[in-house]
Amino acid sequence: MYGRLVRNDMAKSKLTTATTMAFIAAAAMLVFLALFMVVHLLGAIDNLMTQSKTPHFMQMHSGTLDEERLKAFAQKNSQVEEFQVLEFLNMEGADILLGDNSLISNVQDNGLCIQSDKFDFLLDLEGRVIRPKPGELYVPLCYFKDGTAKVGDRAVIHGREFRVAGFLRDSQMNSTLSSSKRFLVSQEDFEALRDLGNTEYLIEFRLMDLSMLGAFETAYIGAGLEANGPTITYPLFKMVNAISDGIMMGVILLISALVVAIAFMCIRFTLLAKIEEDYREIGVLKAIGIRVSDIKKIYQAKYAAIGAAGCVLGLFLALVLKDRLLENIRLFMGESHQSFTATLLGITGIILVFLTVMAYVNRVLKRFKSISVQEALRYGTSGEPAKGAQHFTLSRSRLLNVNVFLGIKDVLARKKLYGTMLVVLVLAAFIMIVPINLRHTLESERFIGYMGIGQCDILINIQQTTDISEKAESIVSHLAKDKDISKFALHTTKAFKVKKGDGSEESIKVQLGDHQMFPIAYSEGRAPVSEDEIALSVINAQELGYKVGDVLTLVIQGRERAFKVSGIYSDITNGGKTAKAVFSDKDTGVMWCTLSVALADKALVKTKLSTLTKAFPFAKILDIEDYAEQILGPTINAIGLARSVAIAIALTLSVLVTLLFMRMLVAKDSHAIAILKSLGFTNNDLRWQYGTRSVFVLVIGFVLGTLLANTLGQGMAGGLFASMGAASFRFETHGLSAYVIAPLAMALSVFAATVLGTWKAGSIKLSENIKE
Amino acid sequence: MNNLIVGEDIVKIYGEGDEQRRVLDQVSLTIEEGEFMAVMGPSGSGKTTLMFALSGMDGLDGGRVAYRGRNLAELDERELSDLRRNEMGFVFQQPTLLKNLNILDNIILPALRNGKESAAQLTRKARALMKRMGIESLEKRDITQASGGQLQRAGICRALMGKPSIIFGDEPTGALNSKSAEEIMDIFAQIVDEGTAVMLVTHDAKVAARTQHILFMRDGKIVSELRFLKKNSPSLDQRLRLITERMREVGI
């Protein structure tokens, strides 16, 4: 009997059934894919790191190196299983040509290396250790992914010709988040190019027992060994490898949670509507002594059928899509050999979705208990008066049109019912506005401030070359004579040691120069003005534990010197760890120089760029917009894509839910519609009433969604940027997009869906709906 | 008296194919201005369908209905709505009041839609009508907080707000006890005295006896009619006897 009842019921409400099923299917699919990918990702990372024998501890170092001393340390330390020092020959992007593409504007630190003998192997796409022959070049996978190079391309590095023989997986630097990229060449080619680049050292250790990593790290630091560069450990490599795909999976899981929530709302709404529709019948069934649990079974059977069908459909879709989503993981990390576990976990996830749906249906059905037989039979509806809306009466409303009044009154009287629609619209507004604002913020001029750079037109970088100071001076004297240039400032970055509370020292990069010419936004305090002041980036201030007004001690040429922390600023470049000061220092070696240039006429940027590039080939000269775009470009693009997808999802969701909602409202309200029509209300009047209901809910939804986007959404984005070094992140709101175009688009969609959904209201037969 | 509504050869068919049923089979009748009329017949005889056809709430499958000479089939949905709002009032067996509105709001709703008078004016008018119907204390009540008889009176107030030319009542006393039913019939009699026509659909001979013109329906046809030319004669008992006799004669 249940089967027949369920079939009849579904046939009567095809649209609702299909929509609910679609949402459940989408949720099931997403949950499956996310779990499936998590297992694969973790498996693939483990495989890759096992195959390439990733170092457990790595210290990057530039400058002189005492290999004997390191060797002695490794031999003496009982935890060390293996030890090696690899060379990384840093090459200027301009000196690397892959096919027709130069890496001149590439922001990665590209360098050459040779295959290691002991561990930290660079692997080919089959997971084998690559042994390059002379003339062969193996290129990091990211350049395959972005289309810069392909196998067989001719490559030129510092005038030496190579052939791109293949691509390599690098368990350390695979991720675009890692700022260095290793190209693999033969020993012979490496030796030939050795003098043309800057050598950095990778001091690497494999330990007997990874759990002793902490103790080893302390021992290494305690021994005062080479440490001019970052330290990276095995867990960090693992995290960097996992992070980009991991974020994607996190997002998928989040979206699936959202979709499950929407499916719940659909279920809740359809169920509530259905219960109201069936109120009299339920009353009759109760009156003749049918048990509540038996009545509930009819509804449960229906949703069990919809849920099961949705889950199976979701599983099918997931199985079709899974390989495409795994492409990236497979390319960068290889196979995981975890298909069985992954599928099993994915299916478990789908079963969980099903159980959650059923649990939710049961919860909604609890209200059966409270159905009063007397009210059900007498009024065919629940007798609860409209709470809170009693004082909103027609007789006292002076301004509102009758139809608008009836629309608003209905929403106020049936808050629970419209609450569902409201939540969906709030979500839709939220997922639409956050990416719009986020993208606008990233694109805005002010965002440059988060990168520790003042607002200028051209940025000149001189690094990884010899005689940096002299070269910078030559540019300075050129700029000083140029009338097109309104102002410029030279900043020299040097590494000093900062003395920590416990007496230990840590390296800190300090940018010296005038910091008032191109001011940046300080989250606290202000720019350094006098010689004894220093400003710290947010992450440096946090890690070193300094606040504005504290005194910090730098070791300059062996002498300690005290500085007062004048301010703290946001910086997401250089790993977020920088400092700014104005003192003069002639003796310490220069790491790099930066010149910020402002033009009198902004239109001249392009011409000025080419003149300067020609005149100073050793410098990296960038339009500030290009610079921002290079650093933020992929993020902006990703968010741009997310924005388009979010807008599409939000609008589809609004249309679908409104359509569904209105169709059901009309079915449910058929008696009231018949009354109104018998009283002489026209179809147009009815459309106005339903339109008012939608618009009223939409307005509240949009306002709440916007508030949520600017608080919770901003907080979420702020948290993300804070982890990268930007303090006090605030959305730059794009007023037109966020508050005019977006609500208008939503209003149009909702309105269209309302008109479409209530079209049938006009054709309701009075005689059928009003007859006793 | 002038003709208010004239129905000629009205045909209404329900169902399709083999299951087709002629619910109204070439029915012709005239309702005059200010007339008090009742349509009697057993369940399924077509009396309610006839009321829907005459008021333009349902289309026809044959014949025509004219309201003051205007053919209803030639009016569009808007004109029909206007006609119902301005010229007609309806009272049904179950009170058809809107759940979201209190009783006063329900009463003024259609008149307010007309936009001719302000909410304040209409409220005053509604209060006077409610007082007349004895429900003045209920104006702020929710419809679930009133009895069936009270709601029926509210329904009549609503029907009277627009000063209609005719009130259609579909078993308006069907759900009421005999005392309430009598009171409602008194109200209808007063309405007729004031010049408004009333057409009641009923199977209760006592209700029909209060009217002056009774149509008897069976199987979609008018099979007989009775007219009482004077208001108070014959007496109510005599009328009742005449009606029941006629019902027996025509087999309803």
For the largest beta sheet of chain A, what order do the strands appear in spatially?
10-5-2-11-1-12
SS element count, helices of chain A: 21
With strands numbered from the N-terminus, the spatial order across the biggest sheet of chain B is 6-7-8-3-9-10
Q: Sketch the major β-sheet of chain A.
A: 6 strands, mixed
Order of helices and strands of chain B: EEEHEEHEHHHEHEHEEH
Distance between the termini of chain B: 30 Å
Q: How many beta strands in the DSSP annotation of chain B?
A: 10
Please estimate the helix content of chain A: 40-55%
Mean residue pLDDT of chain B:
90
Let me know the average pLDDT of chain A.
Answer: 83
**Are there runs of chain B of 5+ residues with pLDDT below 50, and where?**
none
Structural class given helices, strands, pairing of chain B? alpha/beta
Largest sheet of chain B: 6 strands, mixed
The Rg value of chain B, from CA coordinates, equals: 18 Å
What pair of chains forms the biggest interface?
A-B, 42 and 47 residues
> From the helix content, strand content and strand pairing of chain A, which structural class follows?
alpha+beta
Count of DSSP-assigned helices of chain B: 8
Q: Helical proportion of chain B?
A: 25-40%
The low-confidence parts of chain A are none
Query: How would you describe the shape of chain A?
Result: elongated
User: What fraction strand of chain B?
Assistant: 25-35%
